[in-house]
Aminotransferase
Amino acid sequence: TPPLAGRVRALAPSATLALTALARELKERGEPVVSFGAGEPDVNTPEPVIEAACRALREGKTKYTPSGGIRPLREAVAEYLHTRFGLAYAPEDVHISVGAKHALFNAFLAVLEPEEEVVLFSPYWVSYPEMVRLAGGKPVVVPTSPERGFLPEREAFTAALTPRTRAVLLNTPNNPTGAVYPETVLRQLGEVLAGRDVWVIADEIYAELVYEGAHVPFPRAVPELADRTLLIGGFSKSFAMTGWRLGFAAGPRELVRALDNLASQSVSCPTSFVQYAGVAALREALGEVERLRQLFASRRAKMLAALAEVPGVRFAPPGGAFYVFLDVSPLLEAGGFSDADALARALLEEEKVVVVPGTSFGAPEFVRLSYAMGEEEMLEGIARLAAFARRRV
Ligand code: PLP
């Protein structure tokens, strides 16, 4: 057969999606698996959103839409960003995408020339480095440490910048660490970037899921750089809409138009009736977002209490998202595991518990546990993890 292109031969599939698929397969075979792998809320989408999608279908909203999204949804996003976070975007400054992931992918395509660099802070969400490489760019990874709450540090960031740096990716609240970047940290990063031709891509998809501290959007903390900041958000996490594939980007008009054009030549537009559902989400279901946040807050508290009883692991309470990023280095050493992959394999074999190894987040001594799951199952899973750990520590 003819060869495939180098760009896909080097491409790793999303480790988290692969793991979720494995957990589902084992469950379907009747194995008593407990999976902490989920990157999505376990509840269904709010009823008004479902209703709006059905209505749109019946009303014949089944045709192509403008590639950057329908006007009512651009308006609703602009209004939401204003009332919720005090941000001033016109509907023309908003692009509607097929999930936040699609907006991120196209953002890298829109700003990177070959070999230009994107600064990412590790631990990072698995898809960023692959997206940067697919766009022809080079990821430059700047580590953050658990001792400093996984927050970006000014000196390390400054040292990573080169004449080839074209963009920096900020993710707050953070997946996988749950870190919520305080305004002071964002301001420091902004100071370093002042006067440089560097785009800021701010992935704030977990903006609504904060339990300690407050989410401050980057363009709110650093309005001076708003003209070079692309804010990315979505419906997946806060409205339990992962399967609908709907997200948005807001920022300087020229870049937003570039995203529209990229979409027009690739996907044409986000699914028409899903966009109408998006309008209903923002106009009618914001109360559901708060209910979801409270649900996660209560699970988070129980998860942290249960984890405190597990030997050989360390963690700090994460401020946002729905993950605990667990330092398993004492357990790796005690159990003779080479890295978190080996530990995750043994945990699955012995206890039928699925965790996501930190390896693909650039943190091989950590595992990520999602608490977007039923409480009983969650506590059962932690009990099994504790039993696993006690056999070694
Ligand atoms: N950004 C981060 C940090 C995520 O964790 C995810 C989903 O896991 C996404 C973006 C993608 O979200 P969407 O479903 O809107 O594409």
Notes: The chain has two domains: 6-31+287-390, 63-284. Residues 11 and 130 are 7 Å apart (CA to CA). The two ends are 51 Å apart (CA to CA).
